[in-house]
């Protein structure tokens, strides 16, 4: 518990945007991950960068752990205040400062909601491509801190690919500026690159300069239905192998299809074993060519191709995909969403591994995800009060991660390490990397106050 | 001077690949920048990563400054051993370890020559896009350490955009692994991002996993001649403003055109005030569309458009551009090549600034460069023994940098800071960023042995 005089200091900085009552604190004791409750001691919502700077300095002087939080949609425990301390909400810093259509960039504060930016950019005839599943709630700052992916990552890349510059405060309250408004810039260390996927451990970000791109002239969305999920996953490898890069290439297994259909009544084929959702975009002639090639590859594998003929039909298809997580979440009290990722050609092998492992441990699993990126989301439905089942869940996750690494993949494609995956990190990167990360963290935050203990640091 | 026993320890590690004679050391006392002679005490060329590790550990134990060097084509003094010590050549680590056409990546050692990789990749039907001007000599390790740009950066991005993973040794000799073979990966800090443009200050890189892309199906190159350079630069902004992204969009001023033509006899129009070299690529229909639009924009500004009709003609055009630097270098003993960069729409203003400043100080200047990126290369020809002129040169450079910053640009688009631009860095990034960089460097290399004093650190 913080002393009254300390709380008063926070109030001096942020006025009424300071919370210390238990019922308020509880709201920030969880994120979207499967994690234990971690109650902070104080929550503060600065509305100016000067306030951010003062809060950081106060936490530093008083050695208070400081956890930066956007919308809390994190899936790896990244925003859980495991050491208590202060939760700094970025949602008060929610201004889009500039959308430059000539030089195609946007400057936004960290608390801007991703879809708000996407809409504002789209209204000006441009595209901000990163579209994480949580984009209607998630903030740009959180997206950068986690290097969020999304449905369009296959062709357009992830959040980090759009970060041209970042402003942040380090743990001493120094204002750090990295990158900027030019498409090329090599002045000093690549600090905006370092802040990407830094998970709140290295500084408190306040502002981001983000690359925008022209909107595609044309696109085509299709739903492809398979009576055998493995044929869907082989299709994915064959499309990539044919040098076609769709904007989106998503997969859903039978269980997910059924669950989404029950929840959302979109008209999905509940008797299918798997489906692909594919969108190609670009120049109209290129789109027609790619569509024809993709269709032929799908049909060769036995897929039945349905093309969205209207914008409404297209929206309905993508709604189906975006509802996957929330639909699955309705079924059981605890949902564990993983994001092990493999090189794209290994998708069929990884699908088989997930199937074998989850059936070996008799678990309820829906698998969907960004198959085109090699990034699947096996989603385990369970109840954390069922300790016997939780043991099986843990074993299955261990084996899924081990399989991904064996296939030259990674334990996390887009959700990050946070507290949820900290214990697995060394198995992927080795002891030398962990030592290097510790030295890096220690050099920049010697008191270990910034989101302590995440990534095992 | 190193002791005999210390030299023997180096020889124990690297056998005959150790040099300590003055005439050998002199070969590594310069790079391609305008810098003072800096003679190392020892040069060593490891041929295995184990040897690299042992050399790093030896330097750490004995507190010997360690400068990693590829081909020495650096333009900012990045590889000058300003504190003497050991120069570690990466050229003995020159194996292309894997080219994976299915998952589209290459794994290469740091000493691989950029164009060797480009050719090997091209032979397999894929493209490694980054093509720095020095690619026939430069190494991949150097390209990553400097985040090298190139002619294709406008559409395809710079070296850093292709780094999926990097292996390196930190100053204690820890093996650090970051990133890997999947297109998405967020396991721990973005260390491969941090190593991009780290200029040898944070570790000794040995291996890189690089993204490859499909080759474009079609392309069109054109030469556009202007009787007024300003109209060429307005054309650049208009092409970008029309949402067209050519693969390449290069500019040359009258002085550079004349100099290249005198040196290379390619048939350039020596009476032109400026020219643009433009290539559009992609799907054949998109190429034809973009070509028609680009042609019309050029002609609206009074440009005369010549399209390369054969592959030979195309090669001749790009040879003209690639010869710009070497042709200018023939004219005077000292060449100072700058790379101040501005947001693309500010190119006409920046062109005017360069013209005004260099004429104010009566300097001989050829300007060419990646206009589409906002990245110009005003190249000052002088003689460093002429101290009076050198004072004017210095003032002109100060003013060029100040102009770039005023236009929301940067002092370095692609050459890095090294020793040449260290004194300008703070004017761009501010004191807080410098402090952060110092803490970062100190945490990872407390003895300041890795390429000491570069970036002012």
From TrEMBL, chains A, B:
Q: Which InterPro entries match?
A: FAD-bd_oxidored_4_C, FAD-bd_PCMH, FAD-bd_PCMH-like_sf, FAD-bd_PCMH_sub2, FAD-linked_Oxase-like_C, FAD-linked_OxidoTrans_Type4, Oxid_FAD_bind_N, Vanillyl_alc_oxidase_C-sub2
PROSITE patterns, per the entry: FAD_PCMH
| GO MF annotations, alphabetized | FAD binding; oxidoreductase activity
Q: Which residues form the FAD-binding PCMH-type domain?
A: 36-215
Q: Which cofactor does it need?
A: FAD
**Highest taxon above the source species:** Bacteria
- Enumerate the UniProt keywords alphabetically: FAD, Flavoprotein, Oxidoreductase
Q: Which PANTHER family match?
A: GLYCOLATE OXIDASE SUBUNIT GLCD
Family to which this protein belongs: Belongs to the FAD-binding oxidoreductase/transferase type 4 family.
Name this polypeptide is given: FAD-binding protein
